[in-house]
Structures are given as C-alpha cells and as structure tokens.
Amino acid sequence: MALLLLRTQLVHPASRYRLLAALTLLLAASLGACDGPLAAAEPATTPYLESATERRALLEAALWQPELPYSRELLDSYGFSDLGWELLPEQTSASRPLTVTDAKRLEAGLGLTLGELTEHAPVELPTSRAGWRALGETVFTQLPLREDGYLTWLASRPSRWPDLGVTPNADGTVRGLVVFQARNSRPAVGVTCVFCHGGDGIVGRGDRELDVGAIRAEHAAEGGRDMSELLSWGPGRADVTDDGVPSVTAIPDMWGLGHAQYLNHSGAIAVSAPGTLAVRFETQYIKGHRMRSRPARQLMWAMERFLTGLQPPRESLTPTPSPTPTSDAIRAGRQQFNATCAGCHAPDAGFSGGLVAADTLAVDPAVATTPERGTGSYKVPSLIAVSANAPYFHDGSMPSLEALLESGHPFGVLDTQARQHLLAYLHTL
C-alpha cells in the first residue's frame, strides 16, 4: 500500500486523486473488517487540510468542465497559496440558535442581541470516525452558511411562518436559523444547511414544505422590488444559480453522498477523492459570505465525514406499502431492477451512478443546459430510501414512483405486473 501511494505522486493531480479514491475505498474495506479500535480510528489530518497545493489538485480534478462560468470562478480564486480566497480571514464559527423570542423582539422593532454564542471549532481535532462525524453534524446544523436580508426579514415575520413552511422546534428554536457575529461585530441572522435539509425534523431530509421562493419574493416586495417570478418555484424547490436563467430544482435529500460520483444535478463537480466535498462546502461558504471570509477547514472536512456516512432513518421515513409485498414479488422486482435499472443505478454504489445525457430523458433539460453549470447531462441519483423521496426527477416533476414508472422511465413502459414487482422491490431500498 505504501509503495502504491508513493507512485501516485508521479501522475497528474486529477488521475492521482482518482487513484487515491480507489485506494481509500480499499483501505476502508480492510478497516471495516476489523473489530478493534482501528476500525473506529480516523487520521487527525488529511491532504485537504495540509496545503493549498492539495486543495488546488482536488478542485482541478473535480471541475471536469473548466470552461463553465461556475468552474472558472472557482479556478480563478481558490487553491492558491498566496492570493485569492486563501487570503480571506477565517470567519468565526460561533453561533446560537435563533429563537421565537428573538423573532418577537425583531417583530416589535427591538433589534437582535448576540446573547451567548457557542464556538464550534474544536481546540483539538477529532481522532475517531465518530468524533469527526459528531463535529460535522454540529457544522451542518449550527454554522451559518450565509447571511442575507431576506433571512432577517423572515426572522422578524413569525406570523408568516406557517404559510412559508417554517415551523419552530418544540424548544422554541427555529431550525436552520442562527444568530452570529457578522462584520462590524453586529449580530446577524444566518442560515445553516439544515434549514433546507432538515425536513420533517430529520437531519439531511430535503424540506418539501419550505417555500424559499415565496420568502424571497415577499421580502423583495416590501422593499419595492418585483421578484414575483420566484413565487412559481413552489414549496420544496429553489434556484441556486446566478446566471439569470430559470433553473429550479427540488431540494434534495442528503442520503447516499458516500457513493456519489458527481455533485449538482447537472454533475458539474466530479467526486474524485476524499476532500472533494470539503472543497465544495468551503467554496459554498465563501460565496455565501460574499467573499469576505472563509470557514475553518477542519469544519468543512468534518461535514464531509458526517454527510458521507449519513443514513436515512428508515423506520420513521420509509412508508409501508399497502398491501405488504410478498417475498416472491420482491424477488421478482429485484430481477426486474437488475434487468432494467441497475445499469444506471448500481446496487454496489448506493444505487447511484454517473451521468446520463439530458436528451435521453423525458425531463426538462433546462438545468442540464444552464449557462453557469450546464454539462448537457444529469447525474444519476441514489435510490436509497427512494420510496420516501417524492417528488422525483431533478425538478420534482414526478409526484410518485407509480407515476414515474408509468411515464416510461427509463426505457419504456413496463407491463402492470412488472411495475408492481419493481415497486415492491424499490420499497425495500
């Protein structure tokens, strides 16, 4: 293994990271067979944390279409040792949950106070897999991804929350909204990842009720701006691009990232090695804070460790079909899946896959061809807990698995019995 790792230093960075990814999987498999402390051990550092050169290599390997505007912005700004985003100050990780009490103060025009903030960056790095993942969950739920005027507006309009898909937690906090110290030491409202990916109170679940478009449109209207076109997004959908071309997508669940080959619906980012997701998260945070600061990198690595190990809570998430499928039906469905679906949704890769040309699918190609991130393709999503993941397709245009299969996806309409068997098997994933 050591000899192989040495030899990887002699090849192109993109190829080196793909080889390292394969070696990492091999090593993980061997560690997974251990029963002692070694199986739970995790290195305190990683190439992503060690140098700008390593981060640059990860970025270049990930952006396989460097001519895209999205790729060019990152390639022109990230991964240099003495210029660009490397020179940004590290943002504070201290925050606290926004509460209903805060919202009522804002609604009354009393302003926001910092209160007691919790610092999330650790004094010492974790040395176990569980430690890294626990830190990553804290980052996912508590670190402010961005601040924006519409977030402060939302925090000060608790009477509008029911119509906008925002529900306070039982303890009086508001999921995904935090208070933190922004520039000039003022308190600000920030949003964390769990705001969109914490639906039904489940960390990682895309929120099907949250209406981001309506939130932004109402905030704009109060400021005299017309953004009513965002009302067409509807609950559970958003457009995260900046090119002015409508590219609305469903807010996805975060399951299966440990098997992901590509990120973004159009697959603009190739997951080439451990650290790719950390680079992706870091650049998201930098852009979310308008290139004024960058997050602590150990927090980005921790979030990668958390999300690549995140599994859906099947007992509370996956619905029980009625009537309950027989074992014969499930067995027949597995055979149908292997014959019809496994070529794209590989069972040994979390039922995910690579890229599929957009013009071969009966879906809107807009997201696959958007000027900012369009690759001409869509990534093949994971089918983990697929029966609980409606609506389907990148834009949420298919309301159910039944409707999806009846539409002929992917290679023609199956007969009724074959569809029933396939549905029975899909409910087990």
List keywords for this structure.
429 residues; alpha+beta; Cytochrome Bc1 Complex, Chain D, domain 2; 3 domains; four-stranded antiparallel β-sheet; two-stranded antiparallel ribbon; 17 helices; 10 strands; disordered N terminus
Task: Write up what this structure looks like.
There is one protein chain. The chain is α+β, with helices and mostly antiparallel strands. The chain folds into three domains: 7-85, no CATH class; 88-308, no CATH class; 314-426, Cytochrome Bc1 Complex, Chain D, domain 2. It has helices at residues 2-8, 13-32, 47-50, 52-62, 69-77, 100-107, 129-142, 149-155, 161-164, 212-222, 276-288, 297-308, 314-317, 327-340, 366-369, 401-406, 416-426; strands at 95-99, 146-147, 173-181, 187-191, 237-238, 249-250, 262-263, 269-270, 355-357, 377-379. A hairpin with a 5-residue loop joins strand 3 and strand 4. The longest helix is centred in the N-terminal third of the chain and has 20 residues, at 13-32. It starts with a helix and ends with a helix.
**What global shape is seen?**
globular
Please report which band the strand proportion falls in: under 5%, 5-15%, 15-25%, 25-35%, 35-45% or over 45%.
5-15%
Q: Uncertain runs with pLDDT below 50, 5 residues or more?
A: 1-39
Mean pLDDT: 87
The counted number of beta strands is: 10
What's the helical proportion of residues?
25-40%
Terminus-to-terminus distance = 34 Å
Total domain modules: 3
Task: Report the radius of gyration as a whole number of Å.
Answer: 22 Å
Major sheet summary line: 4 strands, antiparallel
SSE class = alpha+beta
Order of helices and strands: HHHHHEHHEHHEEHEEEEHHHHEHEHH
Strand order of the largest sheet: 1-3-4-2
Count of DSSP H/I helices: 17
